[in-house]
Structure formats: structure tokens, C-alpha cells
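Quick one, probably user error.
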């Protein structure tokens, strides 16, 4: 295999221990200003640049191309730590990791050499996948049609929504059909290419600074070597969907941990005790302590299930089969269901234990619940539980698609 010459500027190639340590340090920095960014909707430009420069966005580049090639269990922990600091910053590169994985799945050696080199040079991938107003999330209308002026090339047209990461990306992978009814492919277009318009029209109540807006694609020129198959990934056993989903679970676990930590700090430093508790500090109220302990159990369980799910993906990747990948998807389903409940519970019970003062708008503590409720809407947790139940009852493995 011929590997292209490395770009002159490269981000650090991190070991597993370094990646976790760097993510933990960045998490503390992100947490210090996360509330301000949420309150004033300040996009985390400098923060995302810091994450990129640290080398964390290159940790899944294969070793054959000079990357760290770290296991999923490490990637999930990195994302969880970043989310505990600011889940917006953690969500923005979610699609970056997913589409690095897409290149691993279906990119040609030449495409892999080029795009992995881009990642190692500090370039980010966004996403233009979902569409608004279609029948369902997997109903795609965006199309690649043959370019009449350039043999083998394509023209790309469509409108995308929920395009997290696109505004701040260097490359935007676009999910599109070949010739309207053909199979799904990924068109790799430059962020500022002619015909590409990224609109910062995201108006979510939570995850407010992810810039998850729209992407308009109008007669965008796409070279033949900038298109990769998407559909082929799901014609065999795969962990592509499980990988993307476990990172979502890691984000929710980070939100849960952040909410619980802030609740504990508030109780310890600001809350007044209820008179009937007959204690000097709210932190000594047995009902408050009990409630915090209950949430800690939920959060710990969610974090453990994320670790278990990530390890199941690593194990399945060693020997892909319907059984191994199905087991990984079920483990991820359990993690997503648990992290959904934990994030929502922590974001809500924060106020129960902290008291009336915690509801003041100036404190912005509701951002944790808003972030949790918004992010957990990506995929219904109830369907994760359905797939787990069907496996328990009849041993039915979950379907082979990109959302499990």
C-alpha cells in the first residue's frame, strides 16, 4: 500500500494514556466557561481549535497511515470526559469520528491516504446527513448526478438539517443517493466549495452552541475520487452504527456526571438546610444525601455500561460476525438507554437537592437538563429497550443498520 507523504503540520499522535489525560485537562478548562457560552450562545471556536490541536480528533486514524489507532473504549472515554466539561464541544466532532470510521470502512487506499493525512494535519470533518421534512431519519433526497461536462464526476444537490460540525469543519461528508434512486454514497466536499452554504440556524433549547444548522448544496462539483460508498457497509456484519451510537451514549454520560457534580457543589457551598432536618448544612440533610447517592448509582451504572459497550465493539472488531456485531449493538443499546435516563435524572434532581435558589436564571443550572433532553432525542431510548427485549424473549439480534 502506498501512503502519501505526511503534511508538514501534524497534530500530536497520542497514546491511550495521553489521550485520556489530555481530555481530562481540556474538560476542566471547558467546564469553567461552558455556562457562559450556553447563556450567550457563543460558539466554541477557540475551544474546538484547542481540542483539534491536542491531537484528540486524530486518535482513530489507522496506524498504517501514521495515526494512533486507539481502541473504541479509549475514544468513548475521551468523548465522555469532554462532554463532562461541555457537551456541545463533545458533540461537534461526533460526526468527525463517525466519518473517519466511514473512510476506514469504504475508502480506497488513495482516499484513505489523503483524508487521514488531512486529519493528521488538523482538519475536521463535519456532517450533512439528516434531512428535515422527509418521511423518517433514513429517508434521503439529496442526490449525486453525473456531471455532463466532466466524465466520471458528479454534481451534488440537496438540503440538509441537524448538520452538527459542518459550520466549523474543513470537509463536509454529505450523504446522498446516486442518480436519485441509486444506493447511498458519501460525497466529500470542502466547507467553502462553490455551491455549499452552511446556515447557522440551529435554535435548540439545549446543545445551543453545537451550530447544528442547515447545509444547502446547489450544483456542487464533486470529483470521482471524492465519493465513497455508504450502503456497502451494511451489507455485511459491521460495528459502524454501534461506534457512532456509543459516542452518543458517552456524551449523555458526560452530561449526567456534570449535572451531578454541579449539584453536589451547590449543596455543599450554597444551599440552605430544610429546618426539619435539624442540621447546620444542607449537605448533612439525610434526604439530600440519599437523593445524591441515588443519582450517583445511576450515573455510575451508565458510565459502566458505556465502558462495557465500547469494549464489546472492540471485541467484535477482532472477528466480525452477525453474532459478535449483534452483541455489540445490544451492549450499546443498553448504554444508550441507561445514559438517557441518567442524564435526564441528574439534570432534573439537581434542583430537588439544591433548593429554590438553584432555579435562578442567572445560575443557568437548567442547561444540564436542556442539554440532556435535546441530545437524547437523537434516537429514542424506547427503541433501544425494544431491541433488548426482543433479544431477551426470542434471541432476536437487532437490525443491521447505522443506528444500532
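Nope, works fine. Designed sequence:
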Amino acid at each position: 500500500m502506498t501512503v502519501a507523504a505526511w503534511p508538514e503540520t501534524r497534530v500530536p499522535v497520542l497514546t491511550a494514556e495521553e489521550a485520556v489525560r489530555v481530555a481530562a485537562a481540556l474538560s476542566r478548562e471547558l467546564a469553567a466557561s461552558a455556562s457562559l457560552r450556553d447563556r450567550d450562545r457563543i460558539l466554541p471556536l477557540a475551544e474546538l481549535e484547542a481540542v483539534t490541536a491536542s491531537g484528540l480528533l486524530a486518535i482513530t486514524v489507522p496506524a498504517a497511515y501514521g495515526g494512533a489507532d486507539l481502541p473504541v473504549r479509549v475514544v468513548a472515554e475521551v468523548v465522555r470526559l469532554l462532554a463532562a466539561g461541555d457537551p456541545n464541544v463533545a458533540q461537534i466532532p461526533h460526526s468527525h469520528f463517525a466519518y473517519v470510521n466511514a473512510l476506514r470502512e469504504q475508502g480506497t487506499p488513495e482516499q484513505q491516504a489523503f483524508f487521514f493525512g488531512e486529519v493528521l494535519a488538523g482538519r475536521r470533518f463535519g456532517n450533512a446527513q439528516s434531512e428535515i421534512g422527509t418521511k423518517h431519519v433514513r429517508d434521503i433526497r439529496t442526490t449525486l448526478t453525473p456531471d455532463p461536462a466532466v466524465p466520471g464526476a458528479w454534481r451534488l444537490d440537496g438540503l440538509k438539517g441537524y448538520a452538527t460540525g459542518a459550520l466549523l469543519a474543513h470537509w463536509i461528508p454529505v450523504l446522498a443517493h446516486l442518480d436519485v434512486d441509486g444506493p447511498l454514497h458519501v460525497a466529500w466536499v470542502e466547507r467553502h466549495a462553490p455551491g455549499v452554504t452552511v446556515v447557522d440556524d440551529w435554535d435548540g433549547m439545549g446543545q445551543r452552541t453545537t451550530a447544528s444548522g442547515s447545509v444547502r448544496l446547489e450544483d456542487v462539483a464533486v470529483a470521482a475520487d471524492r465519493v465513497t460508498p455508504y450502503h456497502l457497509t451494511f451489507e455485511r456484519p459491521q460495528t459502524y452504527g454501534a461506534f457512532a451510537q456509543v459516542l452518543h451514549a458517552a456524551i449523555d454520560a458526560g452530561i449526567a456526571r456534570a449535572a451531578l457534580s454541579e449539584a453536589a457543589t451547590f449543596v455543599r457551598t450554597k444551599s440552605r438546610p430544610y429546618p426539619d432536618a435539624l442540621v447546620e448544612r444542607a449537605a448533612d440533610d439525610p434526604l439530600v444525601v440519599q437523593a445524591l447517592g441515588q443519582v450517583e448509582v445511576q450515573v455510575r451504572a451508565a458510565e459502566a455500561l458505556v465502558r462495557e459497550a465500547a469494549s464489546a465493539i472492540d471485541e467484535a472488531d477482532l472477528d466480525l460476525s452477525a453474532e459478535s456485531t449483534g452483541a455489540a449493538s445490544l451492549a450499546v443499546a443498553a448504554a444508550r438507554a441507561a445514559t438517557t435516563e441518567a442524564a435526564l435524572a441528574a439534570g432534573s434532581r439537581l434542583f430537588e437537592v439544591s433548593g429554590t435558589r438553584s432555579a435562578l436564571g442567572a445560575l443557568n443550572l437548567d442547561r444540564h437538563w436542556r442539554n440532556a433532553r435535546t441530545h437524547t432525542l437523537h434516537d429514542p431510548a424506547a427503541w433501544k429497550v425494544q431491541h433488548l427485549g426482543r433479544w431477551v424473549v426470542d434471541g432476536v439480534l437487532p437490525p443491521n443498520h447505522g443506528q444500532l
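Residues 60 and 70 are 6 Å apart (CA to CA).
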